[in-house]
Amino acid sequence: MFSIRELGTSSFNATPENLHSAAWLWAVFDCNRGWHFFDEYLYQKALQRNLTSYDIKFFANFYSVGRTLVLQPQEPCKEVKAQKIENIYSSVADFLNTLPEGTEGLSVFVQMQELLKAWIGSRSTITFCAKIAWFIDPDHWMMHDGLSRAGLKALDSSLTKTRIERDFQVCFAETFSPEHHEIAKNVLRDLLIDYPFPNRVIDKYLLLRGSADLTSNEPWISWLKWKATNYLQQNSEADFDSALRELAKLPGKHIVEL
């Protein structure tokens, strides 16, 4: 197990086990960053059913899913196109604001795709709908996109790409047990991080696993060193080491290829 002092230095040994633990730690800190930067704001607006078209536009930009909203048929006039995209954001906000309390993420996911067909046609809106559904049902629904789907397949080669795209949530549940979710929760507690949705830590790890950055050590290792160093200025190194030991129990290290 590596020490926090080794992160981002020449002494950091990029073994599968170390990269595995570092990637989980990245997921923990990135969830906390996203929560305080934007997620909490949008979550509270969704909870109050008080979303606006501006909120949806901000969401689309922050999560890089606005690019998936390609009008069909295409609109050559920039002004008309901009107005139609604005209408989409407004319709999405109105739809989410009318959902009754307790609406499940899967229902939001399915209905949202149907809603968008009026503008997008048969083009895929899986990523847009999967991510925004989380804000309605964060305790039971997992955000996912192409990277997290690829990360899930990397963890379990028996899962086909088609099956994962068809039902990411079921494939996710088959890969991560309730015990794994509890470990993520314990790590947040050990690190004294006030983040209420530990399951998203797992999804963040999948996103990194699905990216090409896992074995390159850049830029995420340097960013992680900066975050960890800041953490240690105010918290115990013993807590940090305890969290690393917990994270090492989570799936992934045996299939990291250098």
Which descriptors apply to this entry?
258 residues; mainly alpha; 0% strand
Mean pLDDT: 89
> Portion of residues in helices?
55-70%
Order of helices and strands: HHHHHHHHHHHH
The low-confidence runs, each spanning 5 or more residues with pLDDT under 50, are none
Structural class: mainly alpha
**Quick one: overall form?**
elongated
Kindly provide the radius of gyration, computed on alpha-carbon positions and rounded to a whole number of angstroms. 19 Å
Using DSSP, what is the number of strands? 0
Count of the domains: 2
Question: What this model shows, in words?
Answer:
- The protein has 258 residues and is an all-alpha fold.
- The protein has 2 domains: 4-40 and 141-255, no CATH class; 50-98 and 103-133, no CATH class.
- It contains 12 helices and no strands.
- The chain has helices spanning 16-47, 53-62, 78-97, 105-120, 126-133, 146-155, 161-166, 168-175, 178-190, 199-210, 220-232, 237-247.
- Helix 1 packs across helix 10 (199-210), helix 3 packs antiparallel against helix 4 (105-120) and helix 4 (105-120) packs antiparallel against helix 5.
- The longest helix has 32 residues, at 16-47.
- It is elongated.
- The two termini are 17 Å apart.
- The relative contact order is 0.17.
- The model has no long low-confidence stretch (mean pLDDT 89).
Present the secondary structure layout.
Elements: H1 16-47, H2 53-62, H3 78-97, H4 105-120, H5 126-133, H6 146-155, H7 161-166, H8 168-175, H9 178-190, H10 199-210, H11 220-232, H12 237-247
